[in-house]
Design goal:
This protein is mainly α and about 80 residues long. The protein has one domain. Helix content is about 45%, strand content about 0%. The protein has four helices and no strands. The longest helix is centred in the middle third of the chain and has 12 residues.
């Protein structure tokens, strides 16, 4: 699982799906958007990112499954022509 902050979710997901950015998501073929939160305050976003990164895997899974129990790719259809 990858946790990050961006000011443009659509662009960032596209970069991950196309493997344009080297790193964890490219190495482990992480291409599905399974959970996201929105905020207007970057400081809050960074604090939340750090909070989630500090959780055990089981707690992260529970958060995901609370809104996306089937782990559907929430970005399906975003890039269809």
């Amino acid at each position: 699982m990858y946790t990050g902050v961006t000011n443009d979710l659509n662009r960032r997901v596209y970069e991950h799906k196309q493997k344009l950015i080297p790193g964890l998501t490219q190495k482990y073929n992480i291409t599905k958007l399974i959970y996201f939160e929105e905020t207007t305050d970057v400081t809050d976003a960074i604090a939340r990112e750090k909070q989630i990164k500090g959780w055990l895997r089981e707690k992260k899974i529970a958060l995901i499954e609370s809104i996306n129990p089937t782990w559907k790719d929430l970005s399906d259809g975003w890039y269809d022509s």
